[in-house]
Design brief:
- With 279 residues, this protein is of the alpha/beta class.
- It has one domain: Vaccinia Virus protein VP39 (Rossmann fold).
- Helix content is 34%, strand content 22%.
- It contains eleven helices and eight strands.
- It has helices at 5-20, 24-28, 68-71, 89-98, 111-124, 161-171, 191-194, 197-201, 210-219, 237-243, 246-254, and strands spanning 79-83, 103-108, 129-133, 146-152, 172-186, 208-209, 223-232, 258-267.
- Strands 1, 2, 3, 4, 5, 6, 7 and 8 form an eight-stranded mixed β-sheet that branches.
- Helix 1 (5-20) runs parallel beside helix 5 (111-124).
- The N and C termini lie far apart (50 Å).
Length: 279
């Protein structure tokens, strides 16, 4: 039976519901964290948040693949939306940048994550950070609200990436921008990896081609599209051999396939100020 988009979303929801109830060390030793079920070094999610202002250990589940807030050009007083906000890690980093006059909205479709994030923000006493339950393919946010949208290793888990990117365009103010860390491919991932549930929830087999990803951003109407950071991801042998034979592992390594963590920036065009300014 063919797996539908709804099936994939439910898989991710279930997996991240489990993750919300685990501690960071458990997550990072699983297939969904930086440990990746491997005894070798697995660098997909190794970026260090602990040095950033606003970092809160209770909100860090070790699930990111970049540091989008570091590249997002967030300013004091901005309104920031975080897609797939989890326990609130990136939201609290963003809050340190927007200050008390700014506003941060986290969106997640896993109720357990929303509960955890709300408990964290209550402990911190922030009145300008909120978490909304909802699907980022149809965000519970009105149009033209955000100065900045960030997201960390989430869009690759969403079946309809075009819809999410269109939603990002809708919720951004004219002239607003996004900075999103994600996983992309160069070349075709072997089917046995592509359809492995743990690899999907671990952010690899849900990824699409880098050129296709950037193409969707351009097609949505964004300008100044650029890759701010790119890092190669090496899948260790002990993960590959769980899904592929020795010959298939060798072929995979020789194929030139690339798996990358990228941070992508793009801007929504500013509103027209007259009949000639958009020409």
């Amino acid at each position: 039976m063919e797996t539908t988009s709804q099936d994939l979303k439910e898989l991710v929801r279930q997996k991240y519901s489990e993750i919300a109830l685990q501690d960071k060390d458990t997550n990072m030793s699983s297939c969904c964290g930086s440990g990746g079920c491997s005894t070798e070094v697995y660098n997909i999610m190794s970026d260090d948040y602990t040095r950033l202002e606003g970092y809160n250990a209770d909100a860090d589940l070790g699930l990111g693949c970049g540091l989008p807030t570091e590249f997002a050009q967030i300013k004091e007083g901005n309104t920031v939306i975080d897609l797939g906000s989890g326990a609130g890690n990136d939201c609290f980093i963003a809050r340190a940048l927007v200050g008390e006059k700014g506003r941060v909205i986290g969106i997640d479709f896993t109720e357990a994550m929303i509960d955890k994030a709300r408990a964290n923000v209550e402990k911190l006493g922030y009145n300008n950070v909120e978490f909304r339950f909802g699907d980022i393919e149809k965000m519970p946010v009105t149009a033209n609200v955000a100065d900045v949208v960030v997201s960390n290793c989430v869009l690759n888990l969403v079946p309809d990436k075009q819809k999410v990117i269109s939603e990002i365009f809708r919720v951004l103010k004219p002239g607003g921008h996004f900075s999103i860390s994600d996983v992309v491919l160069v070349g075709q991932l072997p089917e046995k990896l592509k359809h492995a549930a743990e690899m999907y929830a671990g952010c690899i087999s849900g990824a699409i081609q880098k050129n296709e990803y950037l193409g969707l951003v351009n097609e949505a109407g964004f300008k100044q599209v650029q890759v701010q950071k790119e890092k190669a991801i090496v899948i260790p042998d002990d993960i590959l051999t769980a899904y592929l034979s020795a010959d298939e592992v060798a072929a995979f390594k020789e194929s030139g396939l690339g798996i990358f963590s990228v941070t992508v920036f793009a801007q929504k065009p500013a509103a027209c100020c007259g009949p000639d300014c958009c020409n």
